[in-house]
Design a protein that fits this description.
Blueprint: H1 2-13, H2 20-31, H3 36-44, H4 49-87, H5 104-118, E1 122-123, E2 129-131, H6 132-135, E3 155-157, E4 165-167, H7 172-180, E5 186-195, E6 207-217, H8 222-237, E7 243-250, E8 253-262, E9 279-288, H9 290-295, E10 304-311, H10 312-320, H11 333-336
Parallel strand pairs: 1-5
Antiparallel strand pairs: 2-4, 3-4, 5-6, 6-10, 7-8, 8-9, 9-10
Helix pairs in contact: 1-4, 2-4, 3-4, 5-10
Bound molecules: 3,4-dihydroxyphenylalanine.
């Protein structure tokens, strides 16, 4: 009997059921009415009085061990079941996963496109690697113009005969491509990335984004230009935004102007963003120079047009009060997350 007890004790100690059914088998085998313990007690009755003294104690301890083991296993199984039930509780709300958001420059580009679409402008694109003709010559840049200097332009290939190849310095090159490849009227905006050989700082970057605009038809006047841009600004910054045009110079427009808007942040009262002037410059514009029309095969006696170009970063900075251009390309999620709600 002693040997049998030793054997059963080690069986109980190492027993580990994986289900309530298995545990029930254990209970029946050891603690059931026809189980091992019952048998052992029956056998106990048959041993001598002397043996009973020793065995009685051992047998009772064994019974206690089996009962306690059963109890703890039962509790453990029940707790485990509760846990695994919770894992698959289909009534709980889903955990959800984080979605990305649009980049602020994409949001503003999209907004600009939407506004001009309402005026019948469509969207065109051109290559970022350009030849001298499309980036400079066709746009009436004199050969010695400072914008052609190595300082501003990232050249890919210098070739005096065939013309240099460079990263475009502005989206005005797309105007040329559009006019060369089609017939007037043209009414389009051309968003895209441009490159300039500038030292990177809070206020300058070696690449940024522009939106070019072009409208060429018979009888297009400076008044059309002003009204178009006025409408754009009311839509973008809200009604009541003031505009002013200052005379300026661009090789590809004559006359040329720069347009300022009343500061959308301080409403003209003066703040850091507008350098306490109440005004901020947002774009360059003008009537397309007849030389440019002719360079692109368009009869400048019959057609006139206006063009404009604006920096998307500039407009985004004003809209969201962003003061460092580097934030746009550093991919810092703390910055990007702030635009997350505007997903569409
Ligand atoms: N291309 C000019 C720049 O990058 C911006 C510009 C000015 C574009 C006047 C135009 C324009 O179309 O008419 O600074």
């Amino acid at each position: 009997m002693q040997t049998k007890l030793g054997h059963y004790t080690s069986e109980i100690n190492s027993y580990s059921p994986s289900s309530a059914d298995e545990l029930e088998q254990f209970r029946i085998r050891f603690l059931g009415t026809k189980g091992i313990i019952k048998d052992l007690f029956d056998e106990f009755k048959t041993v001598s009085a002397e043996e009973k003294r020793v065995l009685g104690k051992v047998l009772n301890e064994f019974k206690k061990l089996a009962e306690e083991k059963y109890q703890t296993l039962k509790e453990r199984l029940e707790a485990g079941e509760q846990k695994s039930e919770a894992k698959v509780d289909l009534t709980l709300p889903g955990e959800g996963f984080e979605t990305g958001g649009r980049h602020p420059l994409s949001l503003v580009r999209k907004e600009i496109i939407e506004i001009f679409k309402k005026l019948g402008f469509n969207v065109a694109e051109g290559p970022e690697i350009e030849d001298d003709w499309h980036n400079f010559s066709a746009l009436n840049f004199p050969q010695e113009h400072p914008a052609r200097d190595m300082q501003d332009t990232f050249f890919i290939k210098k070739d005096a005969e065939a013309g240099d190849i460079a990263l475009r310095t502005h989206t005005s090159s797309v105007q040329v491509r559009m006019m060369e490849n089609g017939k007037p009227p043209f009414r389009a905006i051309m968003p895209g990335r441009v490159y300039r050989n500038e030292a990177i700082s809070a206020r300058a970057h070696c690449f940024f984004h522009q939106v070019e605009g072009l409208y060429v038809d018979e009888g297009v006047s400076f008044a059309d230009l002003k009204q178009t841009l006025y409408y754009f600004v009311q839509e973008l910054y809200g009604e009541g935004t003031k505009v002013r045009f200052r005379p300026s110079y661009f090789p590809f427009t004559e006359p040329s102007a720069e347009m300022d808007v009343s500061c959308s942040i301080c409403k003209g009262a003066g703040c850091q963003m507008c350098k306490y002037s109440g005004w901020v410059e947002i774009l360059g514009c003008g009537m397309v120079d007849p030389n440019v029309l002719e360079n692109c095969g368009i009869d400048s006696k019959k057609y006139t047009g206006f063009a404009f170009g604006m920096g998307i970063e500039r407009i985004t900075n004003l809209k969201y009060e962003i003061r460092d251009l580097r934030l746009f390309s550093e991919n810092d999620v703390r910055f990007l997350k702030q635009f997350k709600t505007e997903l569409i």
